[in-house]
Design goal:
A hairpin with a 2-residue loop joins strand 2 and strand 3. This protein is globular. The protein contains seven helices and eleven strands. The chain is 36% helix and 26% strand. Helix 5 packs across helix 6. With 229 residues, the chain is an alpha/beta fold. It has a single domain, classed as Spore Coat Polysaccharide Biosynthesis Protein SpsA, Chain A, CATH 3.90.550.10. The strands form three sheets. The protein has a seven-stranded mixed sheet with strand order 5-4-1-6-10-7-11, sandwiched between helices. The longest helix is centred in the last third of the chain and has 17 residues. The protein starts with a strand and ends with a helix.
């Protein structure tokens, strides 16, 4: 059940339009990345956090993490050109784990129950990803013309964390590097090896903060959570 988690935090956040790493933006007077990290710091099954950063952000991240309890669980490494390269750098920094999770730094609302289900499923099956059923009608479009209405009963919207036996994900990354293949997520690299990937039902609140509008939803989720607790 124990695991380590890689958190890519080296993106530039261009779609957020703030001119800096979006993970440094604050929600309720705390940087987004701190909300995300604290979920894992408070999990007894998390034995290590690999935070993948840009070199230019190193000092500000060090300052933020200095205030974290149990910050000895956190190791920082530099990212690569693409997210996939950053995750690979994170894998190279991991020592002694059977299960590794990869989680977006911009998803601060992940629940421990889902994390644990993913880690358990990856331990049993080898690979597992969080996802939720698509709610909207999906159209296939070409040149602004609808070509087809896609049957949505089998469509799922993928989230993170994504969880794997370490050897499976490491091998998938090495193979992708060898063949110069760039995937859309970690699971896509594992799928290329024809390894089955299990779905663990996620949570619609587990949004990725990508655009300015997402910050409004984030504040609403925080208010909802405060009422629950």
């Amino acid at each position: 059940m124990n695991y380590q988690v890689i958190i890519p935090a080296a993106g530039q956040g261009k779609r957020m339009g703030v001119g800096k790493n979006k993970l440094l933006l604050e929600l309720q007077e705390q940087p987004i990345i701190l909300h995300t990290i604290n979920v894992f710091l408070n999990d007894i099954y998390c034995k290590g956090i690999i935070l993948v950063i840009q070199p230019d952000d190193e000092q500000v991240f060090k300052k933020i993490l200095k205030e974290c309890p149990m910050n000895e669980k956190i190791k920082m490494v530099y990212g690569g050109i693409e997210r996939q390269n950053s995750v690979y750098n994170g894998l190279l920094a991991i020592e002694d784990t059977d299960i590794v999770l990869v989680h977006d730094g911009a998803r601060p609302f992940i629940k421990l129950s889902i994390i644990h289900q993913l880690a358990w499923t990856a331990s049993e099956k080898g690979a597992a990803i969080a996802a939720v059923p698509v709610k909207d009608t999906i159209k296939k479009v070409d040149n602004n013309q609808v070509m087809e209405t896609v049957e949505r009963s089998s469509l799922w919207q993928v989230q993170t964390p994504q969880a794997f036996r370490f050897a499976i994900l490491f091998n998938a990354h090495q193979q992708a590097n060898k063949e110069e293949f760039l995937g859309t997520d970690e699971a896509s690299l594992v799928e290329r090896l024809e390894y089955p990937v299990q779905i663990v039902t996620g949570d619609y609140d587990n949004i990725k903060l990508t655009t300015p509008e997402d910050l409004y939803f984030a504040e609403a989720i925080l208010k909802k959570q405060s009422k629950i607790h």
